[in-house]
Structures are given as structure tokens and as C-alpha cells.
Fold this sequence. Notes:
By secondary structure, the chain is an alpha+beta fold. It has helices at about 5-10, 15-25, 40-55, 70-80, 120-135, 145-155, 160-165; strands at about 35, 55-60, 85-90, 95. The chain is flat.
Amino acid sequence: MPEAKSQKKRSLMPSSPLRRQLRGAGHHLSPVVQVGKEGVTEAVLRQVDRALLDHELVKVKVGTETPEDRFETADALLAGAEGAHLAQILGRTLLLYRRHPKKPRYEPLPTPPRGPSPTRAERQAKAAELARGKRRPRGTRAERVSRSERISRTARPDRTSRTARTSRADGKPRTERKPRTERKPWR
């Protein structure tokens, strides 16, 4: 692929779903680092490095009094912050990204390679072994219980009638509620 001629295109990370996600997430962020009238200094690089470690996605505001333009500032920041990528340049605001080494928020960690998958014969042997281990020893025919007997042994007791459920604790039945017209009105 030919090298991009535009400085803007050269400094940005390749277009991808990740970049689109980063731009969307960075839209609501406030600038964490500001580049002032002295430009990109060691202190600014330390601050960017620390912010990338803490936040993974950082907005950097380039001041109007900065001696370099925004593209030169972006190149200087990328050269100073190892492993950082430039997701977006929007006006004088830069969006920098570096994946967190332990807990990445936007990219999943690479998965370790798995061993070779078992062959069909190995899977069948394992399934047969599991099935043998789960079988219960069967008794004699007289010891086996029919399905209806099992159900009757575990069946719940008969439910009480509706009138018994609706009666009061003292054994007296509940009284009928009076119609609305006969009750006293609320004040």
C-alpha cells in the first residue's frame, strides 16, 4: 500500500471499527492534557503517558499559542508516548489511544493459543465414560417401583377448600363486604 502524502492521513491510525468506536467514546471526554506555549515538553509527555495508563483514551487540547501546528504536535506526542495511536484530529483537539496492558476497555486481550481439538473417537470415548459413570445399578424387578407409585409417594397433600382458606384465624368465616353506597364516605 502506498504511503499517504497528507500529514493528517499519515499520523492517524488505520480506519477500522476500533477507530470508529474510539471516536464515539472520545466525543464526550473532556481534554485531560493541554499543550501550552512551550509546545511538547518532557513534562507534557510524562503527563500524556500517565493519562494513557489511567484512562486508555485521552483528549489532548493544543493551545493557540503553541509554536508547532497541530499535526507537528501530534507527531511529537506519538513519538514521545510509546505504543500510542492517534484516533482523531478535530480542530486543535487530539484523541490519543493506547491499549491498557492488563484491563483493556476497548480491545479484548489476545487469547492464548489452544491445544489441538480432540478427535471424534476421543470425544466418543469420553462421552461413553461419562455415561457409564452416571448409570445407577438397577435392582430386581420387584424392587423397581412403577411411575404411578412414585407419583403417589411424592404427591402433595390435598389442597384445602376456598372457604377454609378465606376464613379468619379464629375459625369464623369472613363477612361479606358492604357495597360502596352503604359505607361511610371519606372526608
